[in-house]
Amino acid sequence: MPHHDTPHPLPLPSRPWTRKSFLRGMAAVGAAPLLPGVLPPAARAASDRPDFPLVRGGAAVELYVDAADDPAVIRAAGDLQADVERVSGVRPALRHTLPDTAAAGLVLVGTLGASPVVDRLVAQGRLDVSRVKGRWEASVTQVVERPLPGVQRALVIAGSDRRGTVYSVYDTSERIGVSPWYWWADVPVPRRETVTVPAGPLKRYEPSVRYRGVFINDEQNLTTWSHRTQEPDKNIGPETYKRVFELLLRLKANYLWPAMHPYSDFFNKHRENPELADRYGIVVGSSHPEALLRNGVHEWEPWAEEHRGADGTLPVYDYTVNPAVISDYWRARAKQNASYESSWTIGMRGLHDSALETKYATTIPEKVAVMNDIIADQRRILAEEVGAAAEPQIFIPYKEVLELYNAGVQVPDDITLIWPDDNHGNMRQLPDDAERARAGGNGIYYHLSYWGRPKSYLWLETTQLAKVWQELRRVYEHGVDRMWIFNVGDVKSIETGLSFSMDMAWDVDRWGAEDVGDFLAEWSGRQFGRRYGREIAAIRTEYYRLAAERRPEFIDPGVFSVIHHGDEAGRRMAAYERLLARVRAVGAKVPEQYRDAFFELVEYPVHGAYLMNLKHYWADRNALAVRQGRGAGTNRFADLAEAAHTEETALTKRYNTQVAGGKWDGIVNPYPSQIPKAPGRPAVTRVARQETSGLGVAAEGNETGASRPLSFSSYTRDRRFLDVFNTGFLPLDWSAEASHPWVLLSSAGGSLTEQTRVWVDIDWARVPEGTYDDATVAVSGAGQRIEVPLRVVNDGERARRRARGFVAAHGYVSIDAVHTERRVARGGASWREVRGLGRRTGALEAVPTTAAPVTADFATRAPELRYRVRFDGAGTFPVTVFRLPSLDERGHRRLAVALDEQPATVLTGQSVATGNRGDAWARNVEDGVEKLTARVTVDEPGEHVLRIFMVDPGIAVDQLVIDTGGLPAAYLAPPESYHAEFNPDPDRAAGLRSY
Question: Would you place residue 39 in the very low, low, confident or very high pLDDT band (cuts 50, 70, 90)?
Fold first, then answer.
């Protein structure tokens, strides 16, 4: 098992150095960002010796790699040769014999034990390979003076094994400005006449996770693109896999589950594929339904046809019916791929990701016995056909197989257990102490893209990086460090998430709970230039936050309220509009050569998500207009919904036909033909034109009319709306009048054909203290007069300034969980803030995730969150905790709620992924939160303390809402309540505007 002991930079005597301070120092002198997992042996290393010039004065230093080194190393050296040319325009010579003439410099690329010249430098004590030699995929890059006769200086790139060398080669490429995404995302390579790299030594120590890779899955768009642009005679073949393999290596990945759907060519169909993988140094495995590298979608049917029974019947893929035919089927592939570095999936499921078929085993114990027989048979095949090289072997307890595993399947100790998430980024269960002690170790199969229940998300990358961080950190703390596999769909839309996941897989300690934004800034800076890094990171963070409220692929009619909380859906659209404006501002500044990459990585995801939400927002307004009896305005909303869908279609067409000269033809398609689609054109209703007019009014909080008064509080200083609309098609004149001079209207009247939104404010400086239920806004027109009631509560400016904690208003209290009065650690556990997680700015997680549950004596044993709340009345009120979904199928997901010193109520969340539609688990993954409700009793108005206790570790709390008697039903939590420190201006924070 790899030993991960990457150190932090050593301190200088006079000044402490941290990772962040070192990065700031590097940025200050204009140096390249520190590469993932590469740390200098001392902070002073950069200034000790002059940089090594790869290109100077129009001449490039030659590259040398021994002809006997591994083919993967020789091939990667060729990529370095090309990368130097990309940067400088000068192509260095790549040689396999040492120079016999004097040279000022030479790049020596070699693997320890496979490169005599490198081994000689080590033996002479001139190349520091401490904590590199003998390790897994480790490396050192270091300048050595006078390494060979006639050579003044050499940049030595040396790895502990073949991939260690390859990664160090690509480190050098990235250090000179070649992004891993230079081809896959068209990130331009800055041109320079002089190209240098630090003298080092710079070391890449062992990775946190031994096998790190991706699953290309649900790949219809990738197949379409590959067929159109790469290999017209194939559906994902060697030319495409060359690009995939190179990208993986540049990202420091080493592992692949290849494409496997019916519309793709199966991997072994083209014998060049496994040969190429071996030449690149990529370990090829197969997914959970593909035992022993067999693709059942394509390969079983012809095999069965060739192995009909004596009576001519076709054998079925059922081990209880014809084990011999299936065993021979597996054996043929083991024999065929025995010479390649492969990963062997053990166990069995049905064909094409279906459940295990066992005609003659109907009970769970019987199925367990069958699975044990299958594993024994497969192990025998591997021992006979592959021998000792048949590693790693993996067992994936996915869906129904997890149930069988928990019921007693015996997995040999040297097999790696691959734990799946629930397909939506929540780990289903993690290894216990006995499983952590297994020789084969543990891994995970994690989804960044998914086709299946309850909804699919295949179009855009929308999983918050902070969510990825939270779950990956949790699995690592549970000893899962042997293999991490990420489902990346078509590859193309997962650029940022894949980069982050590979960063964490290499060095899980590099990014902390507060650092995900730093990753985004550093990564964006590497793609577009440091000056844009922070703003692009902020854009991506807000993009992920909006998706955490609801993925764009999960949009349904009527999800967001268009009548409550200042038009909840409209506020969301306003946030998207502000975000898109920021995107356009940055896009106008980035140099022309970066425009394609910016569109692919930043603009298209934000703009596409905005339009997906926008068309459904207008469709929801259209549906409401029908219920309200609007006339011309109903059709206007229908037009707007369809216009947004048309714009979204045009945006995707631009991606596929114009960006990068049409390079990505077919790669992006929200509406593929053979896999689940994103929400398409929304249904709208139009009404027939009538030569009439009529006045209609709908006040905020009401679908029609104004029976629910508009509520105003001097604490929140709200702004409320009322819609004035025409029930016909002919223009009408209307007017609005307030009953009190301190009631302010955004519009007092005019001529109206469709509709208008009038905003109502209060001039708090003119309102006498007290409660007013007699204020109104009267709207007149077409011979009608409609009164809208207001309720205005003014406790005065002094009370507002002196209020402590969150103040109840409008019948509720809404709190962002990170805004605590106090956080109390107990029993070795505490709450940590994970920035960028959840629906607001961050969430609080109970850690360590391996802590023991606390089931009693919470006030003395459990870590606690405290919130000061000012109630305006007494009573028993529901308290809803918005927790972020997490699972534990062998345990519980619990927390406890109390008020003041009252007994705590334990709330139990969903801990099991059912895989169903419409149940609690399905709602949780669609909503991105689970709402757990307790009741607390407030004996008297005034200040109280709301307390949240950890029961089970790993629980993450996002928001808290207390219903004191007026909370309307809406999808999101209400805008956060007034708090003198955390939220002194709620109306501004809520982002209210006319939409």
Answer: very low
